[in-house]
Amino acid sequence: MEQVAxxxxxxxxxxxxxxxxxxxxxxxxxxxxxxxxxxxxxxINLCRKNDIVVTQDYGVAAMALGKxxxxxxxxxxxxxxxxxxxxxxERHLGKKARRASGKKHWKGQRKRMGEDDERFRRRLExxxxxxxxxxGLGEGC
Length: 141
Known about the structure:
By secondary structure, the chain is of the alpha/beta class. The chain has helices spanning 2-7, 38-46, 58-66, 84-101, 114-133; strands spanning 13-17, 28-32, 52-54, 70-72, 78-79.
């Protein structure tokens, strides 16, 4: 992500909590206090129109879209006004089904591979071109 941003001279702000401190030679790193959804809430508070938000959380993506920002999943899938409602509904139904089955744990995501990173980079570069073509980027979120 940072390589794409630096190549396009886009400012980046990385948010992390006190349990997962990040370091970067390019991005501004903001450390947010630990707590349920603390980083997500800070991100949405900082987010501005035309920013690009990278998140795997559908709720955060929906809030970013609501502020006029763009959102992309780490898989490279773009969140849009056209697909976010369905994604939120599927998340809700999945959570409801897990609760009904009594299962407390699930396997989680598969391990991230090099081709995943490449797909994300390509899709992020496409999104940057779209955003720049539509009038520029925000301050960087």
